[in-house]
Write a structure and sequence with these properties.
The complex is a heterodimer of chains A (471) and B (63).
Chain A: H1 7-24, H2 30-37, H3 39-55, H4 66-87, E1 99-110, E2 116-120, E3 123-131, E4 135-146, H5 149-158, E5 162-166, E6 169-173, E7 184-194, E8 198-213, E9 217-223, E10 226-231, E11 235-250, E12 254-268, E13 272-278, E14 282-287, E15 291-295, E16 299-303, E17 306-312, E18 316-322, E19 326-332, E20 334-340, E21 343-350, E22 353-356, E23 364-371, E24 374-378, E25 384-390, E26 395-397, E27 403-408, E28 411-418, E29 423-430, E30 433-437, E31 445-446
Parallel strand pairs in A: 2-6, 2-8, 3-7, 3-8, 8-9, 8-10, 9-11, 10-11, 11-12, 12-13, 12-14, 13-15, 18-20, 19-21, 20-22, 21-23, 22-24, 23-29, 24-30, 25-29, 26-30
Antiparallel strand pairs in A: 1-4, 4-7, 5-6, 14-17, 15-16, 16-19, 17-18, 25-28, 26-31, 27-28
Chain B: H1 2-29, H2 34-37, H3 39-56
Helix pairs in contact in B: 1-3
The chains are: A alpha/beta (471), B mainly alpha (63).
Chain lengths: 471, 63
C-alpha cells in the first residue's frame, strides 16, 4: 500500500493549536507573529516531505502533489499580504481587543548638575526641546489598552514615570516592561530640558523629535522615525527600521545606521555617514564635511563635501555642486552629476550617465558603465585629455579635430587632447559615449559603418565514395 | 537508474518548497526582498532538472 503523507494531519494539529492559543489569549499578537514567521511553515513542510520521500523511497513515494502546489501558492500570497500590512505599521491584533485608556503624565525636577539625559521608553513618541531653562520637565499622555478600567488603572500605578539621578546623568524611565503581556502600553512625552545637555535614547518602537540641543544625541531604537533639528554635538542614530529620518542644522558629526525608507540631511558641519539599506529617497544638502554612504542596496558614495545637493532613490541619482574627490559605485541607477570638482570615479552597471563638470579647471573623470550611455558636457573652452570607448555603441564628438574618432566593428573610440587639461576616461560596455559642448545638442554624430557582407562560405567538402570517379 | 530518477523527481517539490520558504525568510528578516532573490528559484529548479537528466543518462552518454 502506498504510504499516506503526514503533513495533512500535522497541519490540522497546528491549526487546532493556533486557534486554541488565539481563544485562550485573545490579546496575544498572533497575527503579527504569523505575518513575520509564516515562511518557516513552508520550510518545515518541505523538510517533512523530503524526509517522507527519503524514508519511503522503496514505495515510490510521489513527492508534492498538484493540490499542495496550489495550497503553497495561496499560503505565499496570504503571507506576503499579511507581511506587507504588518510592515506598514498596521497592527492586526490589538485594535480589535480591549479598550484604550489614557492617563496624563507630568513630572519635573531641577536640572542643576545634569549633563546627560537617558530616555528609556520602549513604545511611544518623544518630543524633546532644549531651551534656556533650569528645569527638566516632562508632560504628556500614557495610553494603555486593556479589557477593563481596573486593569488599566493597576497598570498605570505600576508604570509611573521615574526620574533617577545617577551622578551627572538623569535616567527617565517609563517602566512599560512592568505592564502585563496582554496589555499594550505607550507613552507620548514632551520634554523641555536645558540646551547644553546630551541626550541618549533607548527604545523599541518609538518616534523621536529632538531640537535645540547643544550636546550629543545618541538614539538606539528597533523601529521608529527620527526628526532632529539644531543639534550642537555629534549625532549617532541606530534605528532598526524607519519610514523617515530627517536631520537639519547639525554642528557635529552625523552617523546613521539601520534600515528604512527616506533620509533627509540638511546643513551639517561635521562628517556624515549613512550605513544601511534605505529604499526610499535619500537627500543631502549643504554638507560642509565629507559624506560617506554605504548602502546595502548597491550604493557606495563618497564626497569631500556637498555645498549643493545630492538626491537619490532606487532608480536615479542627481547631484549638483559637489566637491571631490567623489567616488560613486551603483548598480542600477541613472546618474546625473553637475558642477563637481577635483575628481570623479564612477562605476554603474545599468543606467545612463550625464556629467557636466561646469567649472574650470576640469576635474579628473573616470566613468564606466556596463550598460548605458555616458554623456559628458564640457565648457566650450575646456582643456582635457580624452579617452572614450564605446565597446558596443556609437561615439559622439562635439570638439572637432583635436579628438580623433575610430570605429572598429562595433567598437567606437575617441582619443585626443584639447589643450593640456586633466585626464578624462569614459567607457561604456553597451551604449554610446558622447562628448559635447555645454549648452548645445550633439552636433557631430559618427554612426557605425554598415557591416560588411559576410564572405561567401566555401562549398562543403564532398565525400567521394570509392566507386565515384575523381576528376 | 530509474529509481534515482524517480527519487530526484520526488525530492524536487520539497526542495523547491524549502527554497521558497527560505527566500521569504530573507524577505521578512533581511534587506534582501523576494523581488531580488526570486531568480534563485529558477537556479534551484534548473539544477534539480540537470541532476535528474544526469541520472537519466546511460553510462556511455547520449547515443
Amino acid at each position: 500500500m502506498r504510504p499516506r503523507s503526514l503533513t495533512t494531519p500535522l497541519i490540522l494539529v497546528m491549526l487546532g493549536a493556533f486557534f486554541l492559543w488565539r481563544n485562550l489569549h485573545p490579546e496575544a499578537p498572533v497575527f503579527d507573529l504569523i505575518a513575520n514567521y509564516w515562511p518557516f511553515l513552508l520550510i518545515a513542510w518541505g523538510f517533512i516531505r523530503l524526509l517522507e520521500v527519503l524514508v519511503w523511497r522503496a514505495s515510490r513515494y510521489p513527492g508534492v502533489t498538484g493540490g499542495e502546489v496550489v495550497l503553497v501558492v495561496f499560503i505565499c500570497l496570504g503571507g506576503m499580504g499579511l507581511f506587507e500590512v504588518h510592515r506598514h505599521g498596521i497592527r492586526l491584533t490589538p485594535a480589535i481587543f480591549g479598550e484604550q485608556f489614557e492617563y496624563p503624565v507630568s513630572s519635573q525636577m531641577p536640572a542643576a548638575g545634569i549633563k546627560r539625559i537617558v530616555l528609556d521608553t520602549p513604545r511611544g513618541s518623544i518630543h524633546l526641546t532644549g531651551g534656556e531653562t533650569g528645569q527638566i520637565s516632562v508632560s504628556g499622555q500614557k495610553q494603555i489598552r486593556a479589557y477593563t478600567r481596573e486593569d488599566a488603572d493597576r497598570t498605570n500605578g505600576r508604570t509611573q514615570l521615574e526620574m533617577t539621578v545617577e551622578g551627572d546623568r538623569l535616567l527617565i524611565r517609563s517602566h512599560q516592561d512592568r505592564a502585563p503581556a496582554e496589555q499594550r502600553i505607550s507613552d507620548d512625552l514632551e520634554l523641555t530640558v536645558p540646551r547644553d545637555v546630551a541626550i541618549e535614547g533607548r527604545a523599541g518602537n518609538t518616534d523621536f523629535d529632538i531640537s535645540d540641543v547643544n550636546g550629543a544625541v545618541e538614539l538606539r531604537s528597533g523601529r521608529g522615525d527620527v526628526h532632529l533639528a539644531r543639534i550642537g554635538g555629534n549625532v549617532r542614530l541606530d534605528i532598526g527600521r524607519s519610514a523617515a529620518i530627517s536631520a537639519s542644522d547639525i554642528h557635529g558629526n552625523l552617523d546613521i545606521a539601520g534600515q528604512g525608507s527616506d533620509v533627509q540631511v540638511d546643513n551639517v558641519t561635521g562628517q556624515v555617514t549613512l550605513n544601511g539599506a534605505y529604499v526610499g529617497s535619500l537627500e543631502f544638502h549643504n554638507l560642509s564635511s565629507p559624506l560617506r554612504v554605504q548602502g546595502a542596496r548597491n550604493l557606495e558614495l563618497r564626497a569631500a563635501a556637498v555645498p549643493g545637493t545630492i538626491s537619490t532613490d532606487l532608480s536615479d541619482l542627481t547631484a549638483d555642486n559637489v566637491l571631490g574627490p567623489i567616488h560613486l559605485v551603483t548598480r542600477s541607477r541613472d546618474v546625473h552629476f553637475e558642477n563637481f570638482t577635483d575628481s570623479l570615479e564612477l562605476e554603474t552597471d545599468h543606467g545612463d550617465v550625464e556629467l557636466e563638470p561646469g567649472r574650470m579647471p576640469l576635474p579628473r573623470i573616470d566613468a564606466h558603465s556596463t550598460s548605458g550611455e555616458i554623456e559628458l558636457a564640457l565648457p566650450e573652452h575646456a582643456e582635457f585629455q580624452l579617452q572614450a570607448t564605446a565597446e558596443r555603441g556609437e561615439a559622439v564628438n562635439d570638439f572637432g579635430s583635436p579628438i580623433n574618432t575610430q570605429v572598429e566593428g562595433r567598437r567606437a573610440m575617441m582619443t585626443g587632447a584639447v589643450g593640456s587639461g586633466p585626464s578624462i576616461r569614459i567607457t561604456s560596455d553597451r551604449g554610446a559615449v558622447a562628448v559635447r559642448k555645454q549648452g548645445s545638442a550633439p552636433s557631430v554624430r559618427v554612426p557605425q559603418p554598415p557591416r560588411p557582407p559576410a564572405p561567401p562560405r566555401p562549398p562543403a567538402p564532398v565525400n567521394l565514395k570509392q566507386s565515384e570517379v575523381k576528376l | 537508474m530509474n529509481g534515482d530518477v524517480s527519487l530526484i523527481r520526488a525530492v524536487r517539490g520539497p526542495i523547491m518548497m524549502i527554497t521558497v520558504g527560505a527566500l521569504f525568510v530573507l524577505n521578512n528578516f533581511t534587506p534582501f526582498g523576494f523581488r531580488e532573490t526570486w531568480p534563485i528559484l529558477l537556479i534551484v529548479f534548473g539544477l534539480l532538472t540537470l541532476i535528474g537528466r544526469g541520472a537519466n543518462q546511460p553510462p556511455g552518454g547520449p547515443q
